[in-house]
Amino acid sequence: PETGVEGTAITLTAVASDPSATGLTYTWRVFTPYGVVELTGATAEFTPLDNGPYRALLVVTDGLGARAHHD
Asked: The whole model's pTM is what?
């Protein structure tokens, strides 16, 4: 987990390649003390409501439905 500072935006960035050339979809899930925040895009921004640790999970899906994930 990374530590978020209340009210300070955090930028999440991913880089991936698509050998099938079918396009990629990026879905981020940020686990907070209040629930899960879902964001989309290779670059996404999240602003923590409180100080503390936060965990982010990234799922990248290609146009054929193949997926890869990282947290």
From this structure: 0.85
